[in-house]
Write a structure and sequence with these properties.
Pfam families: Dus. The protein is an alpha/beta fold and 334 residues long. 40% of the residues lie in helices and 12% in strands. It has 2 domains: 242 residues, TIM Barrel (Alpha-Beta Barrel); 79 residues, no CATH class. The longest helix has 17 residues. The termini are far apart. 41% of the residues are buried.
Length: 334
Amino acid sequence: MNFSSHLNRFSIAPMLDWTDRHCRYFHRILTKQTLLYTEMVTTGAILFGKGDYLAFNDEEQPVSLQLGGSDPLALAKCAKLAQTRGYNEINLNVGCPSDRVQNGMFGACLMGNAALVADCVKAMQDQVAIPVTVKTRIGIDDQDSYAFLCDFIETVMPYCQTFVVHARKAWLSGLSPKENREIPPLDYERVYQLKRDYPHLIIAINGGIKAIDEIKSHLQYVDGVMVGREAYQNPRLLTTIDQQVFGADSPIIDPVEAIKQLFPYIEKALSQGAQLNHIMRHTLGIFNGQKGAKPWRRYLSENAHKKGAGIEVVETALSFVHTQHEPMLNDEND
């Protein structure tokens, strides 16, 4: 297995307003080998924004920067900056269907202009030595045939060896981004067929995947699996990924220990002006199904946002939680 295919064997999807640097640091404590993605960042934000949109912690690596844009020159500039900053991969967003993204002429609407996507990827790949990958859908609107998907792949693949495919098509109008994640039916078989027809490409699958057994099943047919909301809302899933997906012989981390390992990061981030709730919101689901999960969530939700909230808030919330050796319970019984 080459480096790139290993990098994409399991990843956590880029999710706007969710997979920020605090979230990625926490996820890295839970899994050492998973590829983490930034939120989608537009080329305009990087090149003209007032903030540092490329900032990340070295401890997060391996990290992929997901870019939103359709100007090959701007994308190439951003890719070069990202490589200099230490990112492991650049990913082009060709899957997001939101109106705001379409108005910027990027995201899923780019599926309808495969030649432009190819130009964008080539421009980036000419500037960097790290992999440039594409995250896409299986189709858009009424352009949802397998032939359409193959035409897209064949146009882009001279410059791109890795495609992360969300196994749903996207409706560019009429559905919200949330509805586009739920209403178009999943078609895993179409992604499997893509791997069979283009065996030299690295194909990762995304969409509706929630459990270790499902991940292992998909890996019989494709090179990689990307999980989104389930990894975020139930991060305990991530504690067994290194062992179950990558074959690591390292011990599985206890969720309580994971929170304790986060303490130095919390204290450092607070000293730099971060707010506690902005860090801890990503950890709320770590004890789902475990005794004490509800009071953990409740205490953090009620107190982490308060002015001056510090590590003592987390310590108190943690005192409500029993160890993972306690019997698993339904949340309603917490």
